[in-house]
Amino acid sequence: MENACMNKKGDIPSIILIIAAGALVITGAVIFALFNGELAARSGDYASLMNQLEFNYQYALKNFEMIIEQAGIQCSSCDENQFKEKIIEIAAIRESQFRYENLGNAYGKIRSGEFTVQQKENELQVIIEDLFVKAESGNNLAIRSYSFAREVDI
Question: Which of 24, 70, 90, 97 is least buried, going by the fewest C-beta atoms within 10 A?
């Protein structure tokens, strides 16, 4: 019976495994106990931010459409350069009447003439590129980039 000794090589890894499992259980319990559950409030803030951003985007598109439509009515027999000047003139009036902060660079692009007007058969195409709108809520800021293109019959 000299060789009747038990093999104890598995005891150390088993003890380490039990300690590691216990540490994970305790860590999970602490995290679960300390979680404050304020996801609904944060989710509401983010949803509000995205809704505001979408509103600003739709507002900018409708604003551009009204400017282009009004220019088409007032300048039905204009060439490209005259039509561009009419858009700048109408945008300046609308900007002074309906100042809205979150339109980003919309009026700035028009004011500086950074858009193109192209003649296509019996219509003029207006293209404004690299526009953005923004929305802010607390420390959060969301920015949406887009381009605008519309045709007007002349």
Answer: 97
Neighbouring C-alpha atoms within 13 Å toward the C-beta of 67: 31
Contact (Cβ atoms closer than 8 angstroms) between residue 128 and residue 109: yes
Closest to 104 measured CA to CA, from 47, 57, 45: 57
Cross-strand bridge partners of residue 116: 127
Per-residue pLDDT of the chain (154 residues; tens, 9 = 90+): 455 556 666 678 888 989 999 999 999 998 888 877 666 667 778 888 899 999 999 999 999 999 999 998 898 888 889 999 999 999 999 888 877 777 888 888 998 999 999 988 888 899 999 999 999 887 888 999 999 999 988 7
pTM summary value: 0.70
Instruction: Quote the CA–CA distance of 153 and 81 in Å, as a whole number.
Output: 16
